[in-house]
Design goal:
The chain is α+β, with helices and mostly antiparallel strands. The protein contains 22 helices and 22 strands. 37% of the residues lie in helices and 19% in strands. Keywords: ATP-binding, Cell cycle, Cell division, DNA damage, DNA recombination, DNA repair, DNA replication, Ligase, Nucleotide-binding, Nucleus. GO terms for molecular function: ATP binding; DNA binding; DNA ligase (ATP) activity.
Length: 635
């Protein structure tokens, strides 16, 4: 039976057949056109809203391959060996045969689907519903302890036995933690908004084409803004059903306890660039502290949580900050959300220590009495105070609120050092001071005009000036390690180099950008060897884009699990690498010249790596003043 058969019988009030969702996934997989994908998903969501509205939340989660809000940190990502065993069990094939097929096809989902097709036995004939699949996936993610592997396999089999057609493929991919159909979260958000608007058929009928387009655009903007402030579908989807899209933002706003996506900055290459950008606009320069971003939430009941740049709960890593907070809150302050940088602090010399020192702190279950590296918190923004979001206030007003609501404590809690400089000389002096004080450079921010806090946006109202990158490429890049080259000579036994990739969020692919072999200490090489041992894959996943030429193909492929900060001398058009392919040159991509490893970025997930679009922007900025035009690398 094909995935569409049971979906054809989907009636009002039924739960959503899993086959209907998988049919949509099949259609999405068959195209790369973003508009088409949006249209297909909108059509599916409209049906869900019409026939089974209570299933909308589960459908959204399955489209995103999530089982709960991201910041809760529960992921599927079941290990390959468990999944292979489950597929072997469910299809009666040997694990060895499944492995061989996988090495050839590169996708366990497709192998499972083909294996099921060959099978002579049939399942119970039960129709799987989206609810059932979602609930089982959630159960599987919660299984821990003794014999958890067998229990997980049992649960997976209970679904597999009833899967038909492409349901098998997508179930396996969901369990692996990646659907690989090119469905990005922003497309899911737009489709939710479009479906909500179009479901109101009576009203839509009265609109002109222009009006409809405008409404769809507004709806998309509303839901994206809401999601940046409140990244929690458990709250957004029911609120959408109850209040509609237009009123959604009135009911879903920044809320303490739910980490919002942080505002990001644009890189700059010169101080004159800063002055040009902010001509006739009041701006402020702040030290750019080099530590770990900490978003601190305090609820009315006193509950405090520290979140990373990546919305990971860091409260157990920083019990010292947790203990400090009550001492630095001014009287009358009940609830807040603070944006800060936690920086390593030398208690004896009373000065900031470099990031490398902070990175030696344990990440989990830190006992306050065992802490070796002290931290000082530098607060640079306040986003919520005493029951009210502040993000639409000006930075000037937010900064005043910050200073009125907290008390500085030397070496523990300080306000980010700032100055209202106006000339290149003044900014340069402040920049030199910041670097002498172990900071990375400056953050330059508008104070009034356009100075609202823009969650998740890489805003031109925040410019970062990193001393090391002035007159260079403007910034370091955060890249994903996708492969390794076996070391020779002094590096025998380790990897001698690695293949790095940027992330293209539109196509959900990792595009190779350079090989890297410099910047590693012996300790780094040892650590990388150990770490990647557990993340090897036999074949490159289908979502890796690289030129399959001998000079590039790594000896070993890795899953996309780690992000590295990398410095480079410059960027060049590349005959072999594919970063930002098509954005600067019609067919070629961009590559880094003289890349150097700086550090592991534990606070970024692979999908938050530098994007192909950003690489292209950096390349264009670099070449603005190059009369000779774009450089081409030889390889
Ligand atoms: P990006 O995604 O922009 O590359 P990133 O996480 O790599 O961001 P940076 O490029 O170093 O970080 O710049 C932004 C970071 O600087 C913020 O995420 C924050 O952690 C840090 N920071 C330090 N001081 C400040 C400040 N005064 N204002 C804002 N951010 C600051």
């Amino acid at each position: 039976m094909d995935a569409s058969d049971s979906s054809a019988q989907w009636k009002k009030g039924d739960s959503v057949p899993y086959s209907a969702l998988c049919k949509t996934f099949d259609e999405i997989e068959a195209t790369t056109k973003r508009l088409k994908i949006t249209e297909l998903l909108t059509k599916f969501f409209r049906q869900v809203l019409l026939l089974s509205p209570s299933s909308m939340l589960h459908c959204v989660y399955l489209c995103l391959n999530k089982i709960c809000p991201e910041y809760e940190g529960k992921e599927l990502g079941i290990g390959e060996s468990i999944l292979m065993k489950a597929v072997a069990n469910a299809t009666g094939r040997s694990i060895a045969n499944i492995k061989t097929d996988c090495a050839q096809i590169g996708d366990l989902g497709s192998v499972a689907e083909a294996s099921k097709k060959k099978q002579m036995t049939f399942g119970s004939g039960k129709v799987l519903s989206v609810e059932k699949v979602f609930a089982t996936l959630k159960e599987i993610s919660g299984i821990t302890g003794a014999s958890s592997q067998a229990k997980k396999i049992d649960k997976i089999n209970s679904l597999l036995v009833n899967c038909k057609g492409s349901e098998t493929k997508f179930l396996i991919r969901s369990l692996e933690g990646k659907l690989r159909i090119g469905l990005a979260e922003k497309t899911v958000l737009i489709a939710i908004a479009h479906a909500a608007i179009l479901s109101n058929a009576a009203e839509v009928k009265t609109w002109s084409k222009d009006k409809l387009e405008k409404e769809l655009e507004n709806g998309s903007a509303i839901i994206k803004q809401v999601y940046c402030e409140l990244p929690n579908y458990d709250l957004i989807i029911p609120a959408l059903a109850q209040h509609g899209i237009k009123a959604l933002h009135d009911h879903c706003k920044l809320t303490p306890g739910i980490p919002l996506k942080p505002m990001l900055a644009h890189p700059t290459k010169s101080l004159t660039e800063v002055l040009n950008r902010f001509e006739n606009i009041e701006f402020t320069c702040e030290y750019k502290y080099d530590g770990e971003r900490a978003q601190i939430h305090r609820l009315e009941d006193g509950t405090t949580t520290i979140y990373s740049r990546n919305s990971e709960n860091l409260s157990a890593k920083y019990p010292d900050i947790m203990a400090l907070i009550p001492d630095v809150v001014a009287p009358g302050v009940t609830s807040f959300v603070l944006d800060c940088e936690a920086v390593a602090w030398d208690i004896k010399k009373k000065c900031i220590l470099p990031f490398q020192v902070l990175s030696t702190r344990k990440r989990k279950d830190v006992a306050i009495e065992d802490i070796q590296v002290s931290v000082c918190l530098y607060a640079f923004d306040i986003l919520y105070l005493n029951g009210k979001p502040l993000i639409t206030d000006t930075l000037r007003a937010r900064r005043q609120n910050l200073r009125d609501s907290f008390l500085e404590k030397e070496g523990k809690f300080c306000f980010a050092k700032s100055v209202e400089a106006n000339s290149v000389d003044e900014i340069q002096t402040f920049l030199d001071e910041s670097v002498a004080g172990n900071c990375e450079g400056l953050m330059v921010k508008t104070l009034d005009e356009g100075s609202s806090y823009e969650p998740s946006v890489r805003s031109r109202n925040w410019l970062k000036v990193k001393k090391d990158y002035l007159n260079g490429i403007g910034d370091s890049l955060d890249l994903v390690v996708i492969g390794g080259y076996i070391g020779k000579g002094k590096r025998t036994g380790w990897y001698g180099g690695f293949l790095l990739a940027c992330y293209d969020d539109d196509s959900e692919t990792y595009q190779s950008i350079c090989k890297i072999a410099t910047g590693f200490s012996e300790e780094d090489l040892k650590q990388h060897k150990e770490f990647f041992e557990a993340h090897k894959v036999d074949t490159p996943p289908s979502y890796y884009k690289f030129s399959d030429v001998p000079n590039i193909r790594p000896d070993v492929w890795f899953k996309p699990v780690q992000v590295w900060e990398v410095k480079a001398a410059d960027l060049s058009i590349s005959p072999v690498h594919l970063a930002g392919q098509g954005l600067v040159d019609l067919s070629k991509g961009i590559s880094l010249r003289f890349p150097r490893f700086i550090r592991i970025r534990d606070d970024k997930s692979p999908e938050q790596a530098t994007t192909g679009e950003q690489v292209a922007t950096m390349y264009r900025a670099q070449n603005l003043n190059t009369a000779s035009g774009p450089m081409e690398e030889d390889y």
